[in-house]
Each structure stands twice: as C-alpha cells, then as structure tokens.
Amino acid sequence: MLKEELIKRIVENVLQGRRNKDDEGIEEDYVGEPGVAELVQEALDNGIDTNTILLEALSKGMKQVGEKYETGEYFIPDMLTAAEAVEAGMKVMEPHLASAGESERKGKVIMATVEKDLHDIGKNLVSIMLKGAGFNVVDLGIDVPAARIAEAAEQEKADLVGLSALLNTTMVNMEDVVKELENKGLRDKVKVIIGGAPTSDDFAAEIGADGYGKDAFAAIRVAENLLQSGGKN
Amino acid sequence: MSERGVVVAKPYERLSQEQVELVHQTSLDLLETPGILCYNEEAVALLEKAGATAKKTREGEHDAWWVSIPEKVVQKALDSAPTKVTLGARKPENQVVMDAEGSRVYFGTGSETNYWLEVEPETFVSKQDGREQVFPVTKKNRGSLEYLCRSAHLAEQLDNLDFFLRNVNVQDSDISGENKDVNVFFAALNYTTKPIVSGVADPEQLENVVAMAEIITGGREQLIKNPIVTFITSVIKSPLQIVDETADKLMAISKLGLPVIISTSPQGGSTAPIEEFGMAAQVNAETLAGIAINQLANPGAPVIYGAVPVRARMDDLHDMYGVPEFCHYNMICAQMARYYKVPCYSTAGVADAKVPGVQAAVEKMFTYTAVPSSAPDLIHYAFGLLDKTQTFCPEQAVLENHQIAMVKSLYRESGVEAGEAGRIKSMIEEVMNSPYRLYARFARKMLRRGEIFPGFPFEGDLEEEDQTLLAAHDKLKELEKQEPEHLSEDICKRIFEQIPGLLPRLNPYKK
Ligand code: B12
Fold this sequence. Notes:
The structure holds two protein chains of two kinds.
Chain A: H1 3-15, H2 36-45, H3 50-70, H4 76-99, E1 108-113, H5 121-132, E2 136-139, H6 146-155, E3 160-164, H7 173-183, E4 191-195, H8 201-207, E5 211-212, H9 216-230
Parallel strand pairs in A: 1-2, 1-3, 3-4, 4-5
Chain B: E1 6-7, H1 17-32, E2 36-38, H2 41-50, E3 53-59, E4 62-68, H3 71-80, E5 84-87, E6 96-99, E7 104-107, E8 115-125, E9 132-142, H4 145-157, E10 164-165, H5 180-191, E11 196-198, H6 206-217, H7 220-225, E12 229-233, E13 236-237, E14 241-242, H8 244-256, E15 260-264, E16 267-268, H9 276-297, E17 303-307, E18 310-312, E19 319-320, H10 324-340, E20 345-347, H11 358-370, E21 378-380, E22 385-386, E23 391-392, H12 394-410, H13 421-432, H14 440-448, H15 468-480, H16 489-498
Parallel strand pairs in B: 2-14, 7-21, 8-23, 10-11, 11-12, 12-15, 15-17, 16-18, 20-21
Antiparallel strand pairs in B: 1-7, 2-4, 3-4, 5-6, 8-9, 13-14, 18-19, 22-23
Helix pairs in contact in B: 1-9, 2-9, 3-9, 4-5, 5-6, 8-9, 9-10, 11-12, 12-15
Cobalamin sits between chains A (116-123, 125-126, 162-164, 166-169, 193-198, 213, 215-216, 219) and B (111-114, 169, 199, 234, 237, 265, 271, 316-319, 388-390).
C-alpha cells in the first residue's frame, strides 16, 4: 500500500474507533478489515517513521474526532473509542519510540482516584483522553493511598500526577499527595492536576496543586500547558 | 392498613412474562459467568459456604475475588427474603407498609446534594417603560445541617411525601467523618415523624445510630417492630463489583434485622449496556448478588430491591434522568422485583435541569408519569432534586408535592363497575329530560369527597407573567412557619447523654 493510502486509512480507522481487525466501526462492514494496530504495524514495516505516523495519522485523526465532537456529530462514546484506537497504535509504536528516547510522547502521567474514593468514570475518561492526546498514562486505579501515588511518580519518573475525587470527604486526600511528593523532594519535577465534581480552581490553589480541569478536554489543555511551560522530566 | 402512598390500579408491564423470565435467566447466567468481582473477603466466604466458587485475584491496590454464584444460591436468598417490609416511623400512622405482591407506591426524597438552592423574590425595573416587576432569583449555598433540618421539617409538612431520605450533604466545619452519621440521623428524626432512610458514612457509627433509634422506640425489640431508621447500602459498583467497606456495612445491618436497601446505580452507556435488555440483565444480577449476601448474613432479614439504573449523557457521560431510557430501565426493574416478590426501591422526579423552570417541569412530570405506572413500592429522588442530584431546592419540592398529587390521582381505580351502571344511566336520562341539560348538580358530591382534582395551586393572577415560583416560595414560607414536632425533652436528654458526637446546637431544648 502506498504511504499516503496507509496514513489515510489510519486516520479513517481512528475516526471509526477501531483498535484492531476484530473491532466494529461506527459504520457497517468493518469487522475483519485491518484496524489502527495492524495499519500502524504495516506503516512501520514500510519504513514510515514514527513521527509521521504520530502527527499525520494518529494525532490528525484525533483532531478530526475533536472537531466532530465540537460540531455535535460525535459524542463522548465516539471520542473514547477513537482515543482507544490511538492508544492501540501507540502501543505498536512503543518499542520504536523507546529507542528514539520517548521524545515523541507528550509526557508521562500518573492518574489515580484518591484514597477512600471509588468513583472512576470521570478519571477513566480523563485517562483515556490523555492517552488519545499522546500522553503516556499509568493509571493506578481507585482508592489509592497518597504514598503509593508518590512512589509511582518516583518509579515511573512521571512529569504529571492527575488526581480525581468525587466526594467532599475524600478531596482533602489530594493535599496529602502534594505533601508526599514534597517529602520525596519531587515536587519541582512533577506537576499535579486535580479534578472531580467537588474540586475547583480555588481548591487546587489551596492545596498547592498546579492546575484544575473541569472536564477531560480541560485536563488535556491544562496538562499540555503545564508540561510545555514547565518542561518534561 | 396504611393510607399513605397510592395504589396503582393496574401496574403497567413493559415486559411479557417470557421476557421477564429471559431477563431473570440472563442475570443468573451472568452471576455464574463472568460472575461478580467481590472485594470483601467475608462476603466471599459467605457465598462460598452457600455453594459459590471463588478465585482470588488482584485489582490495582486491592485483593479481590471472582465469584461464580450458582442459581441455587440466588433462589435460596429469594425464598427467604420477605415479601412485606415496613419502614417504621415515629408516628405509627406514617409507616410505609410495603407488600411486593400489592401495588401501593410511596414517594420520598433522596440523594445527598452538595448544594441547596433557594428562591428569592427580587424587584426589577424595566428599562423599556420603567415598570417595576418582581422576579424570582435563585441563590445557591453549600449543604449544611441547618438545611437538612429545614428539609426534614418541610418533609413533615408535604402531604404527598411518605419517607425522608436524607437529601442534603452536611458540610459544616464542625462535621467530620466520625460525627456525621449521628448528627444526620438525629436532625432527621428530630424534624419529621415520617420514616427516615439514609446510608451510614462511617461503619463505626452504625452502632450509635441504632442506639439512638432504640432510645426513641424504647428498645431493640420495639425498633425491629417499628424500624424508624432504614439503611441504604451502595454495595455494588457497576459493572458487577462488590465494594469492600460497604459489604461490611450491609452484613452488619442485615445481622441487626433492620431494613436495608441494596442500591446499585449502573449508568447505561458507561458502566452498563445502554440497551434495555443488557441494562436489565446486569442491574438485576447486581441487585440479586446484594440480596444473596444480605440473606446469607441473616436469612429472612428485611431487604429492598434497590435498582437505580440511569442513562449516561452522551456529551459528557454524566447521569441523565429526564429521558425515556431511564423510564424503561426503571419500569423493567419494578417488574423484576414484583416477579421476585421483593419490595422495590425505584426512582423518579430528579431533573437534569439546574434550576426550577420549564426544563425541570418537563423532565419531572415525564418520569413522575412513567415510572410509578409500573408500581414500584418506593420512589426516591422525588421532591426538589435538580442538576442530576447535585442540588436541592425547597420551592421545587413544594411544586412537586402537587405534581405527585396529580400522579396519584392519575393511577387510581377507574370506577367502571357493574354496580354503578344503573346510577350512571338514570343520571344521564334525568339530565336529558331537564331544562338546561347540565350535569353540574351531580358533580357536587365528588367535589366534596375530594375526588375532583383541584386546579394548579400556583397559578398567579397576572396576565403576562409566570408567577409559579413566587407562589411556591410563599407557600414554602407558610409551611416553614409550622411548629416542628420535635422528639420529647426526655428523649433528647437521653440521646444527648448517651450518644457521642452530637452537636449541642441541634438540641431543641438547650437553653
Ligand atoms: C456514578 C456515581 C457513583 C458510582 C460510581 C461508579 C464509578 N465507576 O465511578 C457508585 C454507585 C459506585 C457511587 C458510590 C458512592 N457515591 Co457516588 N456518584 C455517582 C454520580 C451519580 C456520578 C459521578 C460520575 O461518574 N459522573 C460522570 C463523570 C464523567 O464526571 P466526573 O466524575 O465529574 O468527571 C469529570 C470531571 O469532574 C473531570 N475530572 C474528574 N476527575 C478528574 C481528574 C483530573 C486530573 C482532571 C483534570 C479532571 C477530572 O473530568 C471528568 C470528565 O469530564 C455522582 C453524582 C454527580 N452528579 O456527580 C454521585 C456522587 C459523587 N456520589 C455520592 C455519594 C454520596 C456516593 C456514596 C458515598 C454512596 C451513595 N450515596 O451512593 C458512594 C461512595 C463510594 C466511595 N467510597 O467512593 C455523592 C457525593 C456527595 C459528597 N459527599 O460529596 C454524589 C455527588 C451523588 C449525590 N448527590 O448524592 N457513586
């Protein structure tokens, strides 16, 4: 297949939210056709470099998905599925990116719902969308103690920690994470962003976090801004 | 027999008998494979002892077990779960008496809103003609104990409100995780004589809450007979997961023999399939798993089938209530609970709208009309809930008291009976032979008996303005002037002496 043709088909499959050949698309008759993972592999086999795949295929596809969401043609389920397709492509590229020094990912993010809180619909949405936007996300799950989050940030050499809380009784545990990072001497290397219904810009400032995102789009924006201005690890 | 609530004449059945059985069978299949993912070791042990098989795994930071529950475990639990459950009340005439084989529906509040939104009349001057006009403006504050007390007091005054489910989240600076439960239960019990329903935030506090209720009823035995407190446990995290700490609470409450609602709230499109069949099969399986744990902990303990299926909003994945799918899900669950002969806790009223107004009225009337038609025993999230459970508005609750009156009237018996035919025919004949051919005189008896539905009580008399909210505000102020029926001085004294953590400012007899 021609290079242009391959790139076009990756974009198309991101729009259809197809990780691999077994996935259905939004439209009919896709099952069995190569998905993003297979197409990215084929692109690599054909010598197309990772940067081109990332920018001209995966990111471009995701950008179009975003535009379709803005105009009301796409909904959150479409966004999530597309982001998962991008993530599947990133996985295939992973070994090649590592050799290129990971420079092509936007940065490493640790995501977690804080201790005693089990809510994760919003956190998962943010994780998937950040992955779709090109971040390398390590999701620790729910009810995660502050110490564990700080430890993971250290081990993973994270650039950013994203915290979620949906209860006014658990949002206070976010401050503990900031403190744990300080104790470990990591606070100047790791940015902290928070979100979840009871939190706010004011609350982020109050506990010494670097940013707050009201939804997954804001999460991407805030993360990009912080990592651009603060620089990656 | 209780006169509260309303008997729905012929419950609407969305599913045929074969479809009900298909949902049931699909749920049983799901409980075997993939089974449930249980985070509570004691619950796993209970299920295993009853015949389930479990396999340990690790989920993130936690131990968990895949538990495959065979049909016989579920069937045994359903056999021992009682058909009749009573929510007790300080005043026995306010008891909510549920019979899963009947079709009486009761309405109550719900959620734990972070905000309280009040209406304030404000005068504006028109820029066009200088005319002064009064408009309702809204004011939003964080939930507090004072608002909870006001809500419970309002609940007492609203005649179509049958049970009080703590509705605002108390966020006062002197409230902590440790003293929240006792203060929430005391505030509710001290301001309404209707049944109280709430979750417990801190499992350690269950004992104190029960001790408080025992002081009021006169002991454990009396409390079991008249359980003035009912507990909700959100023991399921969809899809198909049993939450560790909540399972502990569920088993503890079950052992006490107090009524408990097994609540599960999957969101169609995110944590459950969006299609009715998939949603019904999953939410039903989840509720059955909860009932199994409850009945294994204490066979015969009063339990309520608390499915709260909702739909995801497609542009942000928040909950969505004022939509047909939400009604479909809930109507099916009411049917499933009836099939199992277990009382059902269902949902209607809560709006997606953030403030009272046209959107709120449309959404509320829609679910109020649809869901009760299938005759679940309890309808929660009624009265004043806005912004998909985030906000409570007392004026809105006053308006809904009337909407519920309309619904109650809608589903009563038609009165088409053989014994009445003769009277109807002679009435029509008489009118046909009278000078003006009017039926007015024959309307009077029904009118006096209260069988003719009154007009909208918040109509207002201005030609060009909607005065509904202002009228509801006036009505609220009038209701708020009623003296609260507090617990007696002696009871309060004993409660404050014996129950730790109560805030003195809640004591109505404190000098
Ligand atoms: C679904 C739900 C549940 C589910 C959770 C399922 C799941 N897998 O997460 C279940 C049933 C398990 C549950 C349990 C409980 N819940 Co609950 N729950 C909700 C509900 C209805 C929706 C939350 C949700 O998923 N929203 C949709 C997502 C997409 O939105 P979101 O989470 O806000 O996330 C977005 C943004 O906030 C932001 N964001 C989120 N995280 C992050 C992180 C970062 C870094 C950034 C930048 C942005 C960001 O981006 C997201 C995407 O747009 C809310 C009500 C509400 N209106 O919020 C109550 C609510 C949060 N729960 C509440 C309560 C009380 C509970 C329980 C205590 C018991 C109960 N009464 O049900 C338990 C507590 C369990 C525990 N220990 O955590 C209360 C909280 C009140 C309070 N104290 O503050 C609420 C507000 C409901 C209410 N009014 O009563 N709940």
